[in-house]
Task: structure prediction
Amino acid sequence: MQYFTEHGDTHAEVLAKVRSKYGSGPEVLISHQREVPVKSVWGKITRATRWEISGAILEKNKAQPKKKDETIDNKLKLLEEMLNRTSFRKQTAEALPGADERATLTREIAPSLKKEMMPISVVAPSTEQIRKLEAEIAELKATLKSRGGPDFDLVKERELLSLYEHCVAIGFSEDFAESIAMRTRASVASTDFKLRKKIHARAREVLGEHIRTTTTASQRVITLVGPTGAGKTTTLVKLAARLSVMQKRKVELITIDNYRIAATEQLKVYARIMDIPCRVCRTPEELQIAVDSSSAEFVLVDTSGSSPANQEFLSRQKAFFDAITAQHEIEAHLVIPATTRLVDARLLFDRFELFSYSKVIISKIDESYSFAPIIEVADTWHRPFSMLTNGQDVAKDWLDADRMLIADALLKKWLDESDPADRK
Result:
């Protein structure tokens, strides 16, 4: 049985998060639902609360990263050792007179626990044994090929195959993972194919070439759009705190989220703490007047979350921004949770294109094993990342997007899987 505890700003938000991550079948058991105090300085000052839902699941429904076939991997290592010995025997046999008549070779080694020398007899594999080895390698190669993926040498290029499998396991499509592995292979010397550290260093650069980054706050009017529960309001407050508290810029908050009263009140509380104005606009005309009359250097607009399938709702929200685009450039960020699957990421990038977003923010990276699908789709759409967020702490839980930092986050687990000797 697996236990879980999830938090959210509203009961509906945290319930949706539980259903999204664990499902809603009879195997998902909820033990309690309650409001708990926010454990931060601002939370203590304002006595703010969040919803908490705890429970357990009888059978884990959440898809786990694909694991490598350890049997195949161990077998490949054994085959490699045997083939290396075979190659050594052939070279030795050619150097010795009368080698064809010799069935065995004898060498002496020094055991670590004994001082005296001890002869060991090593038998060269027969022609039939070599043929069996080659047949097993061909069978393994056919098995892996049937799964899809690059046609790597299973012995000499095992680390490259492992890189490909890792990329698929963290959420990249097979085509994208193959592209990363093949480009890495082309730029690594064949003598380094067995050195995971060198392959990782080059793969990191190759993946980094697919990641675009940019800065936040390049326009006066900034808005965050995205699906329900993506963390838009929290991210907007983090951006406001960065501009107003840390950079001492004049900021104003505006919300057009007329559907979640609790979220609007929470935004007002944060605004009071940061000592910045906050307005609620219920119509496009009110938004136009608010932006035109604001004296702030930056106007941050909070929006309602919506399902990407609800085109009517998205169009109504778009009408708010149509009212101000004639006079103001809008910097729109698409906020996507790190837990988003590849198929869902493709849908979100497509449906929210309605808002002409120019930048992408990955939220909740602390709640996901990997956010690789978002990286792949952003590369397809040629959209840069501006920020990553990883918690509720307004002052600390965000990072400026950096392409090598993102590449490291996705590939470091693979590097750490290697033996300590390989990383020296």
